[in-house]
Specification:
178 residues, alpha+beta, four-stranded antiparallel sheet, 36% strand
């Protein structure tokens, strides 16, 4: 007996061939991610530590020129004579805080090569900061005020750095003068 099927044979179903996915978009995305991550890491390492100048508290400092060997400051009728010499350091102080603040002149120091520290000469500061506004007044938030910090040093001694502080007791920032 032959076994014939009355039913027609089921058509062979083809298993669809697995479609190959293109790998290049994934590889391109991975390469792009690596480039972005590397660029970000480089940017973080390469940026300056003090992008707007060194800062302490709410103040950002920009140190300009230094002029030493100055014997007197002030008007001719009321000269302030140095016991050695005055070293005049041009600075600009910006208040990056949200409240008006006063720069304490007594907190600023010049430092010589041996590490000796010299305070601002208060009697000279009055005469070298006669602009409007001055470093001796409150600095409004967001405002920058240029001025001069006069340090009295022995003759022949030059400062190698200044230590700038918002106020006495704050850590401050040491700024080289070279």
């Amino acid at each position: 007996m032959t076994n014939t099927s009355l039913r027609p044979a089921a058509p062979e179903t083809e298993v669809p061939a697995r479609r190959k996915r293109a790998r290049w978009p994934w590889l391109a995305a991975a390469a792009l991610a690596a480039i972005v991550a590397g660029s970000g890491a480089y940017a973080l390492m390469a940026r300056p530590k003090h992008p707007a100048g060194p800062s302490d508290g709410g103040f950002v400092f920009d140190v300009g020129t230094v002029k030493c060997g100055v014997g007197t400051v002030g008007p001719a009728e009321l000269p302030q004579r140095a016991n050695g010499q005055f070293c005049l350091v041009d600075v600009t102080v910006r208040n990056s805080g949200t409240e008006p603040a006063l720069l304490d002149p007594g907190a600023q120091e010049a430092i010589d090569a041996q590490g000796r520290r010299y305070p601002v000469s208060d009697r000279a500061a009055v005469f070298v900061n006669d602009g409007d506004p001055t470093l001796l007044e409150e600095i409004a938030p967001g405002r920058s005020v240029p001025g001069v910090l006069p340090f009295e040093l022995p003759s022949g001694v030059s400062p190698v750095a200044v230590q700038l502080r918002e106020q006495v007791g704050s850590a401050g920032v040491r700024v080289p003068l070279s």
